[in-house]
Amino acid sequence: EAFLEGIARLNPRLNAFITVSADQALEAAKASDARRAVGKAGPLEGAPLAIKDLFCTAGTQTTAGSAILGGFVPPYESTVTKNLLRDGAVFLGKVNLDEFAMGSSNKTSAYGAVENPWSRANDPDTRLVPGGSSGGSAAAVAAHLALGATATDTGGSIRQPAAFCGIAGIKPTYGRCSRFGIVAFASSLDQAGPVARTVEDCAILLRSMAGFDPRDATSADLPVPDFAAACARPVKGLRIGVPREYRLDGMAPEIEALWRQGLDWLVQQGATLVDISLPHTKYALPTYYVVAPAEASSNLARYDGVRFGLRETAQNSDLRDLYERTRAKGFGAEVQRRIMIGTYVLSAGYYDAYYLKAQKVRALIRRDFEQAWGQVDAIVTPATPSAAFGMDEKQDDPVTMYLNDVFTVTANLAGLPGIAVPAGLDAQGLPLGLQVIGKPWDEETCFSVGAAIE
Ligand code: GLN
Q: Is 190 in the pocket of ligand 1 (CB under 6 A)?
């Protein structure tokens, strides 16, 4: 009830929730109390969570932040949300995101922008973005409108909004969480993960979300470790990689200082720093912005006005006209841009030059990390190149927006786990985050190092 009251009070300003499921939440909470009364409490019993509106929830509208899915009520539950329900979680509702998870500001949502709860801290006129694409998830958690939230990360969408909102968020190893029932953006990069106020809360949530699922062919059949236990593990003796190539030209001095501070904390706790090189880092953004739109253009072909959500037709419409009207009206500008780029790089004549080349470079980026794991146990970098920016900044320039993802896309291209941890404040008092990248399937070290920084 307290969370629902908070939502009623703050959501009109923040716009974090697209759908509030008040009645279902209260009913679920009651069932939870009943289970607790008979000693049958699950690990998340009664925990009020927000669900990114990219996860299909049976009987509850799932929009993916797009007008094209307005009114779409899935008949089934995603595996990740099903796992959370199995463990006793209570869903408060569905939270806002960039349309089809494409963006870094939450401004591409067809359901309106989300405001970062840290906005107006110093200046009542400055409204800040929460980051994206999981902006609603991060804003809801930061504003105490949920204890934690599900999110997804294709190129940074868990870690960047977590950093912008001063909370923690982990993108696990590709294959750790099932993608079944999550609206697809770029299938070889998409991973689900939690955002929460602490590293340990993320660990508890991830343990419930993760696990093998035969309905996702890329889901890994591996045991799910006790991530919360890893949070208490000392970092003494760990070798922390500091990749040279992440020290960007013109990097903001406060980001550089934050990074140094985080590394100092780890050294004080007995970790050692190792200077490493990930030589293909500079190709990560261009590679990502070829691979992700290519996969998106293919995944989004299914929104044709016939099978889901919006249908735009006119008198004498033929099938092609129905497709064109529906997609022209239903997709926003950023999604249309990605479809255009994606179909271009996949088209005969350009495929070798762009898509195939990007796949090759992706393999080199992956290899950079494989070599680094010979020398280090984890890699620490800044999570974002800046603190949260103003709602009106970076408005018309997609490329500037893409640069936000410079520190995060590598983990997706290489399939690695990465956690964003709140690590300090900038000169304006806005939160900044650090990122810990781990070896494949070694979220535990991400949690240990993340908890040591936090
Ligand atoms: N900002 C990146 C993009 O726009 C990443 C988004 C994501 O991780 N879903 O593609």
A: no
The reported pTM is 0.97
Q: What is the four-CA torsion angle of 328, 331, 334, 336, rounded to 10 degrees?
A: -40
Q: Respond yes or no on whether ipTM tops 0.85.
A: yes
- What Å distances lie between residue 184 and 52, 120, 123, 136, CA to CA? 13, 34, 38, 18
297 membership: H or E segment, kind and range: helix 284-299
Residue pointed to by tokens 């110093």: 122
Name the token pair of 377. 């146990």
Diameter of the chain measured on Cα atoms = 73
Q: 339: which 2 tokens? A: 């479809």
Kindly state the helix (H) or strand (E) to which residue 40 belongs, with its residue range.
Answer: none
Q: What 3-state class would DSSP assign to 354? A: helix
Pocket test for ligand 1, best of 179, 290, 405, 413 (most atoms within 8 A of CB): 405
Q: Give the phi and the psi of residue 217 in degrees, each rounded to 5.
A: -65, -20
Q: Could you report the per-residue pLDDT of 47-77, keeping only the tens digit for each?
A: 999 999 999 999 999 999 999 999 999 999 9
| Rounded CA separation 410/85 (Å) | 32
Atom number of ligand 1 nearest to Cα 404: 1
Ligand 1: which residue has its CA nearest to atom 5?
Answer: 155
Distance separating alpha carbons of residues 213 and 211, to the nearest angstrom: 6
Residues written for the chain? 454
Rg from Cα positions in the chain: 21
Q: Which domains does the chain have, with CATH numbers?
A: 2-229 (3.90.1300.10)
- Of 288, 243, 297, the residue nearest 402 (C-alpha): 288
